[in-house]
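Cross-posted from the bioinformatics board.
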Amino acid sequence: MTRNDQKRVTIVDIAREAGVSIKTVSRVLNREEGASAEVRSRVETVIEKMGYRPNASARSLSSRRSYLIGVIFQRLGGYHYVGEVQTGALRATRRGGYQLVVEQVETPDGVFDAEAVTAILRNTTFDGLVLTPPLCDDPRILEAVEAADLAYVRMAPNADLDRAPYVWMDDEGAAREQTLSLWEMGHRRIAFVAGPEDHRAAIQRRQGYLRAMAERGVAVPDAWIASGDFFGMSGFKAGDALLSLPEPPTAIFAGNDEMAIGVLAAAAKHGVPVPDRLSVVGFDNAPNGASAWPPLTTVHQPIAEMAEAAVDLLIKRFGDARFREQEHSRKLDYRLVVRDSVSPV
Amino acid sequence: MTRNDQKRVTIVDIAREAGVSIKTVSRVLNREEGASAEVRSRVETVIEKMGYRPNASARSLSSRRSYLIGVIFQRLGGYHYVGEVQTGALRATRRGGYQLVVEQVETPDGVFDAEAVTAILRNTTFDGLVLTPPLCDDPRILEAVEAADLAYVRMAPNADLDRAPYVWMDDEGAAREQTLSLWEMGHRRIAFVAGPEDHRAAIQRRQGYLRAMAERGVAVPDAWIASGDFFGMSGFKAGDALLSLPEPPTAIFAGNDEMAIGVLAAAAKHGVPVPDRLSVVGFDNAPNGASAWPPLTTVHQPIAEMAEAAVDLLIKRFGDARFREQEHSRKLDYRLVVRDSVSPV
DNA sequence: CTGAAAGCGCTTACAG
DNA sequence: CTGAAAGCGCTTACAG
């Protein structure tokens, strides 16, 4: 662990060694037009030979770009979502020559920290920001970001869609499709475990379930819809209640994988084998679901792809105004993931 | 989503408005000594009034610091570890005025990407790097980082401990303590599900278990130690095998929470109620374990605190050489987490 | 306690 | 196709 204090190689050194001006070196570095193939290759050789690495700060200062894109989370911890977003975002930032900076707005005790947002925006110089849910619908955040005059893209926003570019997937359509696939296996008594009422994805998934059932002419009794909060314990309680019904369902569709895992535990408690006597499906394709027993049938939510698209939308806005694409939103595809927690009736 | 093209307020504007030199403004900004209280407050007022935000690139260029700290992961996705590391690291970077940049070295298909490492180090200007396991023991990574002459700190390294500063926790001691706590509840037939043989934490945890049993005078039969790979399915198989023994254990200690959850599933399969007829404990304090049923007794691994300490060690090295602390390692404390998956015999 | 000058290493805007 | 000059907005090193 040392710091090298010997002088760094700069663009001037390269220019001198290659017998050209620094402007020409700059052209080669940035793949600009206007350098003959001969000069270009000579400069590249010298760069390679001297191990030259451009100074990012100098580049930023003169170009007025930080080459930093921030992604802000409510909470970084304990969440598969976070890693997926970063994986996707990183693919896009690398392609574009940007670096990915992470931030979160919650205090350690889980309180929303309005000052943190202001501080983040005050002390930093992002070229753009990716806002994840539920932050992307928080008016305090949006106002702070807009006051700082920062470009931003939202992931799966709930409302006010014209306000800024966004990426999304069709939760309702996916839930409908998942429900229909249970129907096609012969299931008729299909129950649903809903997520929190104020959560966009939860609402949409519930609507998709209801729509599918309505399309098949089924009036869903209230008892078939249990309410949950996206956490495992609520799925357990919901499953427990549903399996205690006089005529229990043959299939339970939980609004996310965590709750579906809770349903599996409830089935174990009731001595109901899955999938032989009960089919269970989830939503999200969380790693927990894949390692559950039996492995959970679910819907793949393309989180990484959504984040990648979000960064792409952002970067495109930084380009030359004449060619700047004004793509306002991008929709990503879901995919049903069939594992071992379902079987035909 | 707009970009403001009006001229930014700079240090020159503040200096003019406050009637001082830019050097004095700089002193106030950086809380340097040598500015009277009167001047200081006058400058601060002007800064506030004009909404001045220092340009980070300019600061970096002249101070030869990027104020960027990188944290490199093998894989960003699907892992509770990643979020915890970032949460802790972010606490420390914020305190020190740094930003946290994330990177991963695996390609999307899970292949180690040696070129990615070189590219990361080539295109970026970190002041320092946090290396997470198992990267922190990968000679290719270490060589690349050292060749780039970058300061770095390792989290829970396996070997070659003198090579660079590091943070760690006592996995062996924790596993010993967890085993002894089962013993004190009256358990005598305590089985262990081991993690992968090439994984430092897995080895240490197994040794802690064996040490505790040896201290109590028990020669552990081979059949009591099942081998796993830290994934849930291996825990399920291990539990299945252990519960099929002629004299099954009354307690199973799994080397991590994922495998412990698999053991719970095996217990359900065997119709063995947990904790009434079988106690199950894990290790890590992963969120999965908390939402398992029954909620899992485990050992809290202070991942966030380790990451925070790692960044602290790094930042201290950047300070004035005269006061630079040469703290080489820091040990963090574990903590037993008692939930509902254990009961006395 | 305060400031004038130089310089960090690039890109931009312009000229030829 | 190529380059000389100016400038980005700070900090450093030095002087008083």
